[in-house]
Amino acid sequence: MSRWTRWLMVFMAMACGAPMAQDQGAGQQATWRFATFNVSMYRETPDALVQELAGPGSDQVRNVAEIIQRTAPDVLLLNEFDYDAAGEALRLFRQRFLEVSQHGATPIHYEYAYAAPSNTGVPSGMDLNGDGQANTADDALGFGQFPGQYAFAILSRFPLQLDQLRSFQLFLWKDMPQALLPTDFYNQQQQDILRLSSKNHVDLPVVLPDGRLVHLLASHPTPPTFDGPEDRNGRRNADEIRLWADYSTPGQGDYLRDDQGRSGGLAQTASFVVLGDMNADPNDGDAWPGAIKRLLDSPRINQAVAYGNLAPRAAGGTSYARRNSSHLGDPANDTAAFAGGLRVDYVLPSSNLDVAGSGIFWPDPQDPLAPLVAWPEGGAPASSDHHLVWVDVRTGS
After folding, report:
1. Which CATH topology does 30-394 take?
2. Pairing, β 31-41 against β 112-116
3. What are the extents of the domains in the chain?
């Protein structure tokens, strides 16, 4: 595609009302956009992402950056963004791609950032998948070829309260009451070291410009597939999702002990937003029955976003689903372009937060911005096999 053609397409998108950067001007001062995006920016070796971002980058990275610029979230969770302890990949992505216009989109600056350590690729020293070996990616505490692969990070225009951070990276699966842990598959030694979180579970408060503190509850549960009849990944996915349902409900999360040594969950009055690729659809797919509904049905979750008229929608999901008519869920709510389309990515505000709007960046194939999310038959997606999901929260009068 020529540069002139792309500029013409962007102009047409603006004229047609395609998702563009959020207006934070007059009348919008009390509305803040929270988003999650599985960006598929994982690579095959520990330093590959840093090296790529330090160089010219790739079309995929530029497309991801452009999607973020055109939706302009104030707070954004990036799933599948490889972790490095120095935070170099996150710094390079911000400075060299997000803060540089992509095809005329308005650059976006995130002053605050947090890269979360991850259980992915951390060696367990045991044969966790039962194949007779103890050193494969599937034997790590979370699936990964190296520590930090498939990790996640948070970007924010507003101050992140790192001194109040709570993480549950080390919490053992066996310590969740009535856990779905398959004890007939994992022996006692394995149960004693197996962590619940396949990546991490992080509660990181952010302070909005009006002074309100909102807890960001970020995670990326394991896909409920790639296992055997014991369904160890499906069970783990369900309990990873359950952690936030328990944590956000006073009294139900009393058993939880975070990596900082503090016990219990959120207070009844706390405001929060659950963010992440949960790898579970409420109606379709291979997730454990009721896994995501346990969270969606929680009275602590804003029900208009969970199921109602403010549940994020996009025209692209409906178009994609024409390939698969067997699904029960509304394809307009789908967020991922695989398995016929699934709703697996969520931004779920607490019930004490007012929601002004929501959406999914998944343009219809005829939309001028559709090339940003195109996935040619037999090829790699232009950006990701997931789509950015956003919810606008209104906290002022």
Report:
1. Deoxyribonuclease I; Chain A (3.60.10)
2. unpaired
3. 30-394
